[in-house]
TrEMBL record:
This is P-loop containing nucleoside triphosphate hydrolase protein. GO terms for molecular function: ATP binding; ATP hydrolysis activity. It is found in: Mitochondrion inner membrane. Keywords: ATP-binding, Hydrolase, Membrane, Mitochondrion, Mitochondrion inner membrane, Nucleotide-binding, Transmembrane, Transmembrane helix. Coiled coil: none annotated. Residues 1-18, 344-354 have a biased composition (Polar residues). Gene3D superfamilies: P-loop containing nucleotide triphosphate hydrolases. Residues 1-20, 338-363, 436-482, 547-578 are annotated as: Disordered. It comes from Lentinus tigrinus ALCF2SS1-6. Signal peptide: none annotated. Residues 452-474 have a biased composition (Low complexity). SUPFAM superfamilies: P-loop containing nucleoside triphosphate hydrolases (SSF52540). Residues 262-418 form the AAA+ ATPase domain. GO terms for cellular component: mitochondrial inner membrane.
Amino acid sequence: MNATVATTASPSEPSNGFASRPAAFSDGPLPLSLPRMVFTLLSASAFWDWARLLLIGALVEGLRRSLSKIWEKLCQSLWVTATFDFDDDAADWLMHWLSKKKVFQTARDIEVSTRGGTIDDLGENDDSDQEAEYNVVFLPSTSQTYSAWYKGHYITISRDRVTTAGSYGHAEDYLQIRMLTRSPALLRELLRDARKAYKVANEHLIEVSVAEDGDRWRRVAMQTKRPPSSVILDPGVLELVLDDARDFLSSKKWYADRGIPFRRGYLLHGAPGAGKTSMIHTIAGELGLSIYILSLTVMGLDDNNLKSLIAHLPKSCIVLMEDVDAAFTRSIKRDIVDPETQSHTHQSRASSPEDTGDSGKETQFGRVTLSGLLNALDGIAAHEGRILFATTNSYGSLDPALLRPGRLDLHIEFHLASTYQVKELFKRFYTCTPSEEGEASSNRSADDSEKTQTGSSSTNATSSASPSRSDASTMPEGISSVYPGSVHTSRVANLSATQAADLADRFAEIIPARTFSMATLQGYLMAYKTRPYAAVEEAAAWVQKKKKEKPTPAAAARMEPNGAATVAEADELPESAT
Ligand SMILES: Nc1ncnc2c1ncn2[C@@H]1O[C@H](COP(=O)(O)OP(=O)(O)OP(=O)(O)O)[C@@H](O)[C@H]1O
């Protein structure tokens, strides 16, 4: 395509020696002017060159695309790929499985989190490692793909973060696992194995989740199972509910054969701090079920969110609906002046409008309607294996529709502590567990000396009646050296079973029955953690002091003497309640 231009002398050119250029000047290609260049590029011979180029380019690109499609298809047929939402249980199983793999333990690029999760992979002796208390979780880095082997198959694991459009930069994490196999069954096998290993590793724990953002569940804790012996109720109450729930869970066929919806709901009501929540945690541990806590007064909860929450519950679990009355009362009061509940971390809620008083603090309550709640209760029951526990401190304000059998079948009333409970609480509090034996014997001399100085105000612990003091000489002038509350000590008391039983009898004689909640009594004993003798000696004064404190109407009502824990089957309720 080189263009050569011939130089011939033009007749118009002057014929002096300068006008005609020497041949040497006309030999090389002359620079093209723009129009000439365009003309040349569009000339017939250039056109074919262009066409050839285009064809070759199209062929190469077509081939590249086909090969990549074939490769993709090949990969798809060779790999099984699964993607999990990071909040999903299956992601937890896989993360646990992955955490045991060498590739992950030796990875140099990982993310560490202390929020949520269950992977305790700090080493073999986690229990003795203080860091384990922080529940450190290793997560795959979003920038890396990890590879491992499972039953002879190569797998890769990666984590991806996707920012959801329109949700103010809210990012969702996904876990992707790819297995080099043609059989999807292997993935199921891996998931089964991972779930099994996860369950074994966490069998001493129960998962606790709460409703978050209105319509999703978030796991907030893996709690150590609470042994039945740690919840002291009147004889037979815990066993009754536990046996009932066990019996129910094993009766699926009976219900199916008769076409009766397979569902069971329990209503626990009565005095705050009497052990309702503790009993539910114990039952969850005994049945091996996770707990999903649903508070109807949670901000932003309405009928639609409630429905969505119920739809996202796992098949088999315990749903704990706290303060089930609270959503339907005009105002909700924090019972802040009730001496019965002051020492109790869960502040009680008096629900009737008359109870609110001046000290009451208005709280935002949910927008759940009664029919929305009834639908939710029916939704909870729609899956076999789900058990509903509802709690309330205000039984009388519940709508009869809630109480009818099929929704809340068994109603258990909790009372203030009976003499039996007081005695048992004292014994359990001061009797050593086998793991504490060694520590307790090293405290022997200290406790013996406590025994000889009963009644005197000891300095190694403080009580709610005798607030914590620091050494006044070390305090700057003008600063109080007396603090309400009690100082914690890790030491434990060292009583033999007989000593504990004798002291428990004396303690139970002093504490009037059905007057204090178990939470309050536990709070009192905490102040005498290492001084059981002083706890007994000073109990009478404490009772007098408590009685002098002016109770709220709600507390006064609760302090009326009562019988043993009352159990009512829903079908034994008065007509109006069914
Ligand atoms: N019956 C009990 N046996 C042993 N401990 C108890 C008992 N009742 C209460 N406690 C202790 O008191 C504290 C509060 O108990 P819990 O939360 O179970 O009471 P609750 O009846 O659910 O109260 P609320 O109605 O205010 O939620 C816990 O630390 C628990 O260990």
